[in-house]
Model the fold of this input.
Amino acid sequence: MNLFTTVFIMVRRDLILALRHKSELLTALFFFVIVVNLLPLGVGPDPKLLSKIAPGVLWIGALLATLLGLPRLFAHDYQDGSLEQLSLSPHSFTLIVLGKIMAHWLVAGLPVVLITPFLGIQFNLSGPIIAVMMATLLLGTPVLSLIGSIGAALTLGVRGGGVLLSLLILPLYIPVLIFGAGAAEAYRSGLDMSGYFWLLAALDILALFFAPWVSAVALKVALE
Amino acid sequence: MNLSVSNLSCQRGERLLFENISFELNPHQWCHVTGENGAGKTSLLRLCAGLTNPLSGLIKWGGIPLKEDTDRFHQDTLYLGHANALKEELSPLENLQLMSQLDGSPATEEAILTVLDRWGLLGREELPVRVLSAGQRRRVLLSRLTLKPCPLWILDEPFNALDRRAIQTLYELFNQHLEQGGLLLITSHQAIEMTDGMSVNL
Done:
C-alpha cells in the first residue's frame, strides 16, 4: 500500500468534513484573532510595548487556537464508530493518524500562519519581523498539532477530557513557544536566529516521527 | 482459511464476561453467537475482529494467531459493529467511496451505485447521511458487504432497523457469501432464517 496514498486519503477526507462544517473551520481562526486583539485592550495602546510583546502574543494565540480543536480531532470518529473501522483498515493506522493530524494543521495551523501578517501590522511589527514570525509559525504550528494529537488520543472518551488535554499538552508546548517567540526577539536584537529555526525544525522531525505512532497506540488502547 | 477460537476468556472491568469459549469456523460455515443482554456477544465479536485483547485464549486465522499477521487479517475481514461508522456530512456515495479506499479496494462510482440500487437507495446517493432514516443508514453500511471482497464477515446485529425487503437482501448476500466459501460470524437477537449454522451460546 502506497504510504502517501493513505495520508492523502485521510487528509482529503478530513478536509472535506471540515469544509462541510464551516463553523468548525473558522472557529480556530476567529479565536486566534480575538485572543490576539484582546491583549492591546488590557495592556494599553503604546505602539512600542505592543510591538515588543507581539511575537509572544501571536505565539500564545496560535497555541490556544490549535488547542481549541484538539478535543475534536478523534472524538467525532470515535463516537460514530469510524475510528474503529479506521483501525481495522489494511492501511497503516499510524499513517491514518498522521493524515488526520495533517488535516488538523491545515485547518487550525495554516490559517493562523496566513493571517499573521495582518495582525502583525496591527501590532506595529516591521516587515522582516512579520516574515520571521510567519516562518517560525510555519515551522512550529505542525509541532503543536503533532504533540496535541497525543493528548487528544490519551484523553479520548475520558470525562472532562478537554481540561485534562490542556493540562497534559500545554507544558509540552513550552519549548515551541520559547523557540518560536525567541527567533523574533533575536532578529530584533540583531542576533543570529538560525539556531531557533534549527531547533524548531528538529522538533518538527522528532514530533513527526513519534507523535503519530504514539497517538495510534493510545487510540488503540482507547478503542479496547 | 478458517477462524479458530480456543479457550477464550474476556473480562470487562472487574467482571468476567465469559471463559473458555472455543469454536472453529470453516469456509461455507456460519456461526450465530447468542446470549442475554450483556453476556458478551459484542465483546466476543470485537475480540474476533482483533479490536480488543482477550484475558486468555487464542484466536487464529488460517492457523496464524491474529497478532502475528494483523495486516492480512484486516484485509480478509469485514467487521460491522453497532455503530454505522458513517460521516453524517457526507453522502452515501462519498461515504462508500472513502470506505472502499480505506478498505484497500477502491470502488468505482458505477459499482457503488449498483450496490446502492440493490439496497433500494438509488436516488438518495447524493443526500447527506444525516437526512437518512436509521434503516437507510444501516443499509448504506451493509453495502460494504458487497464492496469489500473478503472471506470473513463479522456482523454485530446487522438486522437492526432493517425492513423486510432489506432483511431479504441481507439473507441473499449471506447465502451468496457462504456458497462462495465465505465465513460468517454473527450476533442477532432475532432468529436467523438459515440452516446448517453453528451456535455459540454465552
User: Anything to note?
Assistant: The mean pLDDT of chain A is 91. Residues 75 and 156 of chain A are 7 Å apart (CA to CA). Residues 3-223 of chain A form one domain. Chain A has one domain: 3-223.
